[in-house]
Amino acid sequence: MSFSLRYPWLVIVAAIILIISLTAGATKLSFVSDFRVYFSADNPQLLSFEQLEKDFNKQDTLTFLLQPSSSATVLDPRALNEIAQLTQVAWEIPYARRVDSLTNYQRIQSADDNINIDDFYRPEQASAWDISGELEYIRTQPDLLNRLVNKDGDLALIIVSLSLPDGDEKATAELVAYTRKLLAETDLQHLNVQLFGSAIINLALAEAVERDMEALIPASYLLIFAGIFFLTRSLAGTFLALTLTLLSVMATFGALGWAGALGLTTARLTPVVGVVPSMIMIIVIADCLHILATYQHGLRAGMSKVPALAEAVKSNIRPVWITSITTALGLLCLNFSESPPYRDLGNLVAFAALLAAVLSLTLFIAALRVLPQPKIQPGRTLAHPGQWLSGLLLTFWQRVLQPHPRALLLGAVIVSAILAAGVSQLKFNEQWHQYYDESFAVRQALDLQNDKLNGVNFIQYRIAAQDGGSLYRTEPMQQLQQLAEHLETFAEVGFVDSLHQPLLTLNQALHDGDKDYYRIPASDEQVAQAMLLYEMSLPFGMGLNERLTIDQTASRFTVHLFKRTSRELVAFDQALLDWAAEHTPALSIAPGSGLDMVFAQISDRNSISLFQGTLLALVLISAVMMLVLRSVRLGLISLVPNLLPALLAYGIWGYISGHVDLGLSIVACMSLGLVVDDTVHFLAKYRSARARGESTEAAIEYAFSTVGVAMIITSLVLAAGFALLLLSPFSPTWGMGGLMALTVIVALLADLILLPLLLMLLDRD
């Protein structure tokens, strides 16, 4: 008899002390929502991006999107006065480094042989303001149009450039909270304001995950609780399984905190962890339900509580440990991921799988031991829906599967081939702007900017003179202009931010406004003098350090694009580099950078890495199965129901969506570790019966009668729990929930149909 049955209270107290000790580590965790955490420190695209930021300052921003509320245009003096007011107070936002707006845009004008560079608008100009004339002026300024105001004058921006401290995870929330309070306290009667920028996007990511964890995940737990109770009619067992899930979640996150304190990991939570509770739930519920089903089976066979529990432990101790180990192996293959948060996800849930095995075989058993024996009448049939399912399952086996194994296997192969073909429809595309549905304020803001201004994707380039000299020369500036004008012909380009743009206006102003001089000066000396004049005339905080290195040898060149997929961004970048290599030989252009490009590159690399990890995990899991089952044949047969679900689920997803991003690319690894559970329990019971001398058919029937109902219950309720995540407005949550639910259902069908057919045809005496 197990230790948990002999000394249940001792086991309960020891388990609770262990859980409390682990959970205490959760106080050492911190939450980070910065997109940079999705990339390894040695990621080449991230290194390029960070070098760009070192050269030209970081590009963290907070943006005010401004629409007129009492007039047709933001050029109305009443609206401009409020823009000027917001521009002024925006300098007080925490970590603000620079504020660019329509009102403080540096207008270059010439009059009576004098050059005047001043703010586009000051409140004292209101009485003589010409709205239509100013709109025409805006449309002639490539450095202003579609950067700070659109061509119709009904949308303007205030861009606050930020210098966020490294490692301070609360800084973003602090500055956004300050800004929201500032807007609430500012009397704006002529403007509607929406917030956007990288700070808002990062915070929205955290808020989206928090919303899901507060609503959908508890709802999925409740749904699973109700489903298990309905099918087993065991209130105590159901409550214990749910409690064990919650304790496992707490202990797992606490263990991560302790690991961080010991320097083994960063102990930083990312939005990816939002799926961890659901994955832990799968593992714990599966372990507990198999034990509970065997326990109830013993009671119905006439056994008393303690012998029935002893039989449940004896029958399930090996399958529980096998499933936990194979689950951990599958999830540990996420360490092949290019993205650190997904590596943390795999390690977290792998630890949870082993912890769940310990708790289910100790705390769960001990708790059932001290609770009153369920009122189950021996020999009674159809006592609850679970027994009705058992009868239905045996009927399905006897009347459908057993009489026609070859025909059904052929049909299963054909259906599987058709579904698997859908994988060819999948495209790896990262589209962060599709993460949020229209209920999110950040989605409304990004759609507004994309539809009315310059798009929401951007690519940044480090451009230097090919000979290593100063960019303040005629030829480099002319080729910068040539490159920008070429890109502006593309429909997907919303705005090109280039160093040469103020030089055009300044050169015209230096020649009394003659339009013929709206060009790059003809000599290197004139270029250098004009740019020096421009820099000296700029007010404090509005210099060119965002665009130019201190030694003037390299410039930041930014291309803003309307919504693009990651593949389209990569293709655009390559097309730009190819064109520049042929037409701008005086320029040395580094490959495109920025977070959009870093994300664009990672999906393909991640899928290749995970494929390698999945193959390794598959080999290890198969070896474990062969060793435990003591049969190479059964180990090889188990590969089919273990590998096929992910393949078919992705195939179905290919027909439904055709889109896979970074989050969905890890489902194959996750599911490989999770779907083996039912296969292991089925084959363990089958192998046990065969060892007693039973025929193949009799052994299959024994497996169906002992674990079939538990397989159905766990799969259906867990699929329902994952399917509930489809209600999430956050696409990484609903996408992973939908694909995981699909995988669980396909795995159930594979274990109930394909696995018995393979055993009948391949495991004969």
- Which structural class do the helices and strands define? alpha+beta
Radius of gyration: 32 Å
Tally of helical segments = 25
Provide the low-confidence segments as ranges: none
**Overall 3D form:** elongated
Distance between the termini: 35 Å
What would the average pLDDT be, to the nearest integer?
86
Q: Report strand %.
A: 5-15%
Largest sheet: 4 strands, antiparallel
Q: What is the helix fraction of residues, given as a range?
A: 55-70%
Number of strands: 14
Widest beta sheet: strand line-up: 3-6-2-7
Protein name: MMPL family transporter
Pfam family, one: MMPL
Keywords: Cell membrane, Membrane, Transmembrane, Transmembrane helix
Transmembrane segments: 6-26, 215-232, 239-260, 272-295, 349-371, 407-426, 610-629, 636-656, 662-684, 704-727, 739-762
Question: What does this 3D model show about the protein?
Answer:
The protein has 765 residues and is of the alpha+beta class. It is built from 25 helices and 14 strands. The protein has helices at 3-6, 8-23, 44-56, 77-90, 131-139, 171-185, 198-232, 235-261, 276-300, 305-332, 340-361, 363-370, 385-401, 405-420, 441-452, 474-487, 501-510, 524-537, 566-583, 595-629, 632-656, 667-674, 676-691, 696-724, 731-762; strands spanning 30-31, 61-68, 96-101, 106-111, 114-119, 156-162, 191-196, 268-269, 427-428, 457-465, 493-497, 554-561, 587-589, 659-660. It has a 4-stranded antiparallel β-sheet, with helices on both faces. Strands 11-12-10-13 form a 4-stranded antiparallel β-sheet, sandwiched between helices. The longest helix has 35 residues, at 198-232. 50% of the residues are buried. The mean pLDDT is 86.
